[in-house]
Amino acid sequence: MQNIPSNTSKHLIVIGGTSGLGLALALHHLQLGWQVSVVGHSLAKITHINSVYPQITTYLCDLTDFNARQHLLDKLLKNRFDRLIYSAGSYTNERVHTLNQTDSTQMLAINLQAFEHVFMRASEVLKCQNLQQLDKAKGVKPSLICIASIAGTLDYPYASLYAKSKRAMIATASAYHIALTPFNIQVNCIASGYIDTQTLRDLNGGDASHKPFIMSLDHAVSHTMQAIDTDIALAIFPWPMRYLARTLNHLPKPVLNWLLRSQLDKPS
Question: In what order do the strands lie in the sheet with 83-86?
């Protein structure tokens, strides 16, 4: 850990900010002049960020460990912050691999339990901050953002644990959006389609170009920032995936279940 942010500059915290969209959003804010803190579980990635981006404050934490999370949040939330992005995620391909105890525990802990823990603590801190003074001094509305998935927008019985947990994340963010509006705190949920990240490529033998409507990391950052800047409660993109999800959700549940099981959810 290094470079504790000052109280006079805008401060972003990214949980799960050492790779993929989380890191890309962290770097985007850094370019805009924000103080940035990122949390990750990989010592190698933390070490790399410390070397290449010394301006970023880093924290190492195993989010599946409740006590470790508690200790992290006690340290992290002592410093005033303006925006927190929860971008941590865990995925197991349940079409190919039988879900075991380790995978199940990890996905539930990171995609849902840690997310709920972080949002609960962070929202309480933001409510206690002097929001009027923060707005005038920095010109930014305090905000909580979570990175879900378009998989969580589909409601069908065959949904995986990953999709179910992301659906729960979307619902939880919606509740926070309503609850925190009287406190002038912004809440946004990002439900994107496939993003061409290293993790996705690794999950697909090094090449994810066959994924439908896959977008570049730069485009994902652009869409995400637009959603934050315009305060969209639930941002679903790219638009072809948004309309596809909307169409599928209008199908009768038995038909949707059969279609996703037999067509869209086949191993590639």
Answer: 57-60, 35-40, 11-15, 83-86, 143-147, 186-192, 234-237
